Amino acid sequence: MAISRKITGFLSQASWIRKMFEEGERLRAIYGADKVYDFTLGNPDVEPPAAFKEELRKLALNPIPGMHRYMSNAGYEETRRAVAEVLAEKTGLPFKAHHIVMTVGAGGGLNVVLKTLLDEGSEVIVLTPYFVEYRFYVDNHGGIIKEVPTGSNFQPDLTALEEAITPRTKAVIINSPNNPTGVVYGTDCLAALGKLLDKKGQAMGTTIYLISDEPYAKIVYDDIEVPSVFQFTRNSIVVTSHSKDLALPGERIGYIAVHPEIEESDLLLEGLVFCNRTLGFVNAPALMQRLVARLQREEVDIAGYQEKRDLLYNHLVSLGFEVVKPQGAFYMFPRSPIPDDLEFAKLAQKYNILVVPGSGFGLPGYFRISYCISKQIILNSLPAWERLARELGLNKPVV
Ligand code: PLP
Questions:
Q1: What is the CB neighbour count within 10 angstroms for residue 161?
Q2: Measured in Å, how far apart are the chain's first and last C-alpha atoms?
Q3: Strands 100-103 and 123-128
Q4: How far apart are CA 379 and CA 266, in angstroms?
Q5: Pocket of ligand 1, candidates 101, 114, 131: which has the most ligand atoms within 8 Å of its Cβ, to mutate?
Q6: Which pLDDT tens digit goes with each residue over 155-191?
Q7: What's the CA-to-centroid distance between 194 and ligand 1, angstroms?
Q8: DSSP conformation class of 168
Q9: SS3 226
Q10: Quick check: CB of 103 below 6 Å from ligand 1?
Q11: At 328, phi and psi to the nearest 5?
Q12: pLDDT, tens only, 72-97
């Protein structure tokens, strides 16, 4: 075998993802794309805001000399300043350009942060269910992932989290609004979490960083606010991107923002910039940096996502599925009506419904629906969900 044993193992753990993708392709070839209800991918079907296209056109018509060259590994000053300005406004904290490192998406940013922070054997806590790539990102940099269950409605269980902290705990990764559940962590929860990490770090003479992965921060419903983690502990680092809020996932543009009063901030920032370079990213895509500098106050049409959430959530609940109502992102994570979520996903395929089993997010017994697909496909899928519910003998709740 030419490839490493570790990657061979990772590939076999994730083989069902490939199988599901292949099954989707097979079904599309037989029934046509509009009759296959593919809820598996987090790839937004919306277009970037009009302002993006306008700025792109302006830049193409008035190119800046040298705009395709290398730059500082942290990114353009202009872009970092624009990001810092909005963060300062939101948090009241003195963010400046040097607290920002532009990255190749949130995925790239998380790898940069983890490479900078982790020693061999450092522990990183994640809350189940979680974005499964964290497992591989932590492994990339010699860390060990520690999964901690969430409590009711997928909110952090601080008692369980406290029990999982050891002197080797280097960071906790949170993700709100959450993939795969769509839940948002409120002020009380984040305040208690920040306090806990500070208290435990002080008691052990270590620093436990709160890494907040926030690519969905602007995709929230019912006028709720996503509180900023920066308000709750100074040892906080936000990693985010414009993959979802500007619908630019293929353009790979994001950033890391470091709390202005974080411990040893100069050394940390130097480390981040070094790792951005030596992971081979070198710098975030130049053209996109120019554009997002002008788009920090823009976002995609959130009302459209909310409409899809309501459509699907109301339908599933009316059929008897048990679902925590998502407050953000474009996912929901219903309980699997049968204990084996892989079996459930297979059963759903019989009705051309493709979902991801909860096992893929570290929490068996559930399944993930991604509703960033066309409203028409969601509408087309409603009778199929009904037939699936009937086969499972789900009881409609009494109203
Ligand atoms: N974090 C979460 C929770 C995600 O869902 C995703 C993408 O789906 C990412 C990070 C990676 O996003 P990016 O495209 O910015 O790398």
A1: 24
A2: 59
A3: unpaired
A4: 52
A5: 131
A6: 999 999 999 999 999 999 999 999 999 999 999 999 9
A7: 23
A8: T
A9: coil
A10: no
A11: -165, -175
A12: 999 999 999 999 999 999 999 999 99
Give this prediction's pTM. Answer: 0.96
What amino acid occupies position 294? R
- Which CATH number fits the domain 64-292, given the four candidates 3.90.930.50, 3.60.15.10, 1.10.10.410, 3.40.640.10? 3.40.640.10
Instruction: Tokens for 73, please give them.
Output: 């590994």
Q: Which of 104, 130, 179 to mutate to test the pocket of ligand 1 (most atoms within 8 A of CB)?
A: 179
- CATH architecture designation of domain 5-48+300-392: Alpha-Beta Complex (3.90)
Every domain of the chain and the residues it spans? 5-48+300-392, 64-292
Residue 173 to residues 32, 123, 127, 223, 313: CA-CA distances in angstroms?
Answer: 40, 11, 8, 25, 27
User: In which residue are the tokens 């860390």 written?
Assistant: 143
Q: Which two tokens stand for residue 23?
A: 């099954």
Nearest Cα neighbor of 298 from 89, 53, 81 is 53
Cβ–ligand 1 distance for 213 under 6 Å, the answer: yes
ω into residue 249 within 30 of 0, thus cis? no
Paired tokens of 286: 């130049």
Q: What is the pLDDT of residue 19?
A: 75
**Which residue matches tokens 């893929």?**
360
Residue entry with tokens 């995709």: 219
Nearest Cα neighbor of 19 from 292, 369, 342, 247 is 342
CA of 215 to the centre of ligand 1 (A): 6
Report the residue among 104, 133, 134 best suited for mutation to probe ligand 1: largest number of ligand atoms under 8 A from its CB.
133
Two structure tokens written together for 19: 């199988």
